[in-house]
Amino acid sequence: MNRPPQQRSAKRAAPPRARGRSRGVQAAARRQAILAAALDEFSRRGFAAARLDDVAHRADVAKGTIYLYFKDKEALFQELVLSELAPVVGALEAALTSDLPLRTIIDRASELFVREIYGTHRKQILRLVISEGPRFPALAEFYYRKVLARIFKAVRARLRVALARGEISDDALIRFPQLIGAGFIVAVVWHGLFERFEPLDVAALVRAYFDRLFAVARPP
Amino acid sequence: MNRPPQQRSAKRAAPPRARGRSRGVQAAARRQAILAAALDEFSRRGFAAARLDDVAHRADVAKGTIYLYFKDKEALFQELVLSELAPVVGALEAALTSDLPLRTIIDRASELFVREIYGTHRKQILRLVISEGPRFPALAEFYYRKVLARIFKAVRARLRVALARGEISDDALIRFPQLIGAGFIVAVVWHGLFERFEPLDVAALVRAYFDRLFAVARPP
Amino acid sequence: MNRPPQQRSAKRAAPPRARGRSRGVQAAARRQAILAAALDEFSRRGFAAARLDDVAHRADVAKGTIYLYFKDKEALFQELVLSELAPVVGALEAALTSDLPLRTIIDRASELFVREIYGTHRKQILRLVISEGPRFPALAEFYYRKVLARIFKAVRARLRVALARGEISDDALIRFPQLIGAGFIVAVVWHGLFERFEPLDVAALVRAYFDRLFAVARPP
Amino acid sequence: MNRPPQQRSAKRAAPPRARGRSRGVQAAARRQAILAAALDEFSRRGFAAARLDDVAHRADVAKGTIYLYFKDKEALFQELVLSELAPVVGALEAALTSDLPLRTIIDRASELFVREIYGTHRKQILRLVISEGPRFPALAEFYYRKVLARIFKAVRARLRVALARGEISDDALIRFPQLIGAGFIVAVVWHGLFERFEPLDVAALVRAYFDRLFAVARPP
DNA sequence: GATGAATGAGGGTTCATTCAT
DNA sequence: TATGAATGAACCCTCATTCAT
Asked: What's the domain range around A194?
């Protein structure tokens, strides 16, 4: 029945920094811990319903500490998404623009997606972008300009070559490169909503999807 | 303990009801107004951040009135989604199960989607399901059991016939009927996030998508 | 999940007044029904927490109807208490002022209390006065002036005679006539709080109490 | 989504803490301030009508602070009553179980009541138990098991001895130990309701009451 | 008179943010 | 730098009261 303001936990009473870890390393670790905790909480509850109290607990820092690393809840969210997105963008772009055979490119991109995104916590990031993006114009804009626009440009260039070479039979994907990501999107959405009812073999889905998408049609 | 009689607001001082509207009709209209307002606000802010105060304002009713029609915010949300989904389910199921040529079926389903969902406020409903579904298990379950499971069943049956007849060249879509909706999902997600930067011709995208998806492959 | 404003119940759809009951009789019956329902609800929840909605339901009238008979919640409460108190006051006063032997008077008053108050819903009224009285000065004042002051005056007069006659051995009750009611008060308070744990034989308690109170002391 | 930083109120601009008050002491003081303020407000308005806003104001803390110390309004109420009751229980039990002459015991208990309860804010606690107890079963149960049951047991044991010794002349109080508290209850109830109209010398009332209660009767 | 849908002020509770330590 | 108690605006929900029918 009683709830006195909680005593500083035993753990926190320990000396605040492990020996051998420089200040900067420690700070970076804390930042990471907060970001990781934020990802968990934002994924679990959504941006608006997530509580910074829970983030702090999960990151094992005090609530105020979050504000030493991030301006506010919104900044925390945006930096979270951006920091997770950045590393994949380069890889994806590289994969998609190479001059390997189209089929190889696609296979590599698929594998990259399954391994680096769907198989990791980055899947949650993608979900967050899809779910919360509309309320974070800065995020959507970044994502569009820095990720999609560049990828689309590279993809279209490569596809035009492919069309000329007969690797693909029409310009559908040139006009709508969005479709290339459709398999990924569907996988992430399915996972968030229906995994409970019917698990999904994402690698197989993605493979089947690209098989269909890049099949060379014969006249009916 | 006493509360002075509240002044009737200027707005409410207007004639409160058009002649010829029975009480039941009036109630139904109000319910609809609240649902419409709720859709707007939930779409704009997301479930957690939406304020019932704003819903009430937008519906031109008092805050308390919402509670005459819905138990609480969550019930309002769930009924909103369900009431919008229900009418389309039947139509979609009927379209997908017919014995018309596969291509016709697909064209009709596409048209149905573009006209009845993407072209209307139901697009927002789909977005809400995608975004908020994970926090509303009852909703996800309803959607899975009453919509997807039934549609998938019908679709798989039809596709098996199509495969036998050579209308399709492999079993990708039988194994992953999720892919049939991928074009729709991508369209909705794109609209929510990037429409501002690059508008999307959804009808064309869906057409192109199905062209690719149901293309009969020839050996490479 | 759906909660449309409830349809007028079948019962209420019946002709609003039974044949043979004049308008005035009907009105009085309604008033009584409301008062009875109010007593139940106020007793159950206390004045502040009781809901007029529940009162209306219990009285089988519409919420607005209450306001045809009572100005507001507070007036309902006060009239409730007053209307229940009034009939007993006269009887109690009569019983206490008679010129019968003191012991007979006391026995009759006890019996009156047990039969007319403790054995009926008036017990709840007494509880309400005790519990809510401090927030209803008008009520406390009425109760003091119209009930207690008069009873005390009568009692004191009778006790002075009793003291002179040797029916009682000291002036304790003349100075503190409050004590005469102590047994009643204790019974009501006990009932409200602890009846669950340990039921109380109130008639026996009151008898034992007065035996002690009016025992003629012998010098120690 | 942004919230402007709230201005620190003028009041809070004062030096927030006296030197030499450790954090724990400060917290305890705050808790006490809230409990004291709650007692005032609950007494004044009753549990249901009391506003935590007023409690906070009176305790000179922000509304949210209350929730750092108490789970909710109900917990605040229950802890208030319990924290005030606990200290007196022991003393009362000790007083009533001693082997001093019965008259001495009674005198001491009376004095204890007048000094420690009626003369202090605990009088309000007793009122709250009487008024609100029925709506707080946990409270009534605590009060019965931890206070009354124990006291009654001690009292009955002592009274049986007294009866054997001829200190009392019958078993009325053994059967109804409730009556021992009757004087206290009447005093508290009177105070709450009628003090305004007719002040009560409680010490004298209690003395007179016990004189009568423990008078050794002679046959009439 | 009687109804009950509608109203909207009010209050309990939450939680992002601050700041003294 | 890190803490976490404190703050108070905000928001969901309730319910006394009104009034068109």
From this structure: 74-213
